[in-house]
């Protein structure tokens, strides 16, 4: 079991520093492949919860043998604002999945042709249109295309031809997909976060190609074991903690986990329960313009937390007026002419509130001051850097 403690109902998972650390976990190749995938995903992807990397890794590994399963889940990355790392995770998956094809847009004809020719893993970015209208042929095929043996009939040269629609598919979009599509998806809600490594495509592709080849090799090597576990899982009550549809889409991941990391069964159950529970929230509908505004505000707020901490230095805190003067004195910062008016005390407070920071009363040399405490800024900074629990955003300032 990979977690080490349970505190205040929050489960803490240790984060490895690099792929090299994973190399020592077990000498057996089948036990090393999942940690190698997780290390790659965690290095370049902004995973909101550390234990979510395990199902993502098992999904990627499962793309190398998806035809063994009667159904294979979709993987959906969603957020309420741009800049949360959704596209980056599709690029990460492109490096490690079987015959991955990353597309910004795809038609029904194009999808069927790719599936028939390549049996690919389809990675579809900017999939917002799939959240708007289920009365179209492409959406109808996507709703059915997570199950094996289903086809779409099209006209070709005057004849009716059946085209396959089953293959692994991952999507990235603002807001949520339609309810029926969500039921077929393992959905990961993304937030703007820093990644452990900066994305440099040639380097990532070289490393990912090595991992991809190992995935294909170990899946082929353990093909019979995968078949045996899958054949026996129907007689087991192991996944009955999930709803029937969730049980259907999570089964391939639990099969892969049983073969390649059986000691981590509890961790996978926790991840499945947490991810499925998030679906109980109302579907998010996000306009592109509003999403862009929220993303820019989040980015500005994170920068303010960093620069406020820098100008505070070793002091207990910094007075609001002093902070504004010093922020505007940073020559390459946007604060002097922010939004065409310059940063104000109210706008400063609004931007840092999502990070759990607000102006407070404090004393320096016996004087009562109002401003920002270093302790609050340090806590927010640790959360931004991913080395502490996410902070609780403060409620919006009263109008």
Outline of this structure?
By secondary structure, the protein is an alpha/beta fold. It has helices spanning 19-22, 29-44, 53-62, 86-96, 108-118, 137-144, 179-182, 201-221, 223-233, 244-260, 265-278, 288-312, 320-328, 345-352, 374-384, and strands at 5-7, 10-12, 74-79, 100-103, 121-124, 151-156, 159-164, 169-174, 185-189, 317-319, 360-364, 367-373.
Describe the structure.
The structure is a single chain. The protein has 2 domains: 274 residues, Rossmann fold (3-Layer(aba) Sandwich); 97 residues, Arc Repressor Mutant, subunit A (Orthogonal Bundle). It is 45% helix and 15% strand. The N terminus is likely disordered. Strand 1 and strand 2 form a beta hairpin. The longest helix has 25 residues. It is elongated and about 80 Å long. The strands form 4 sheets. The protein has a 5-stranded parallel beta sheet. Strands 10-12-11 form a 3-stranded antiparallel beta sheet. 36% of the residues are buried. The chain has 15 helices and 12 strands. With 399 residues, it is α/β, with parallel strands linked by helices.
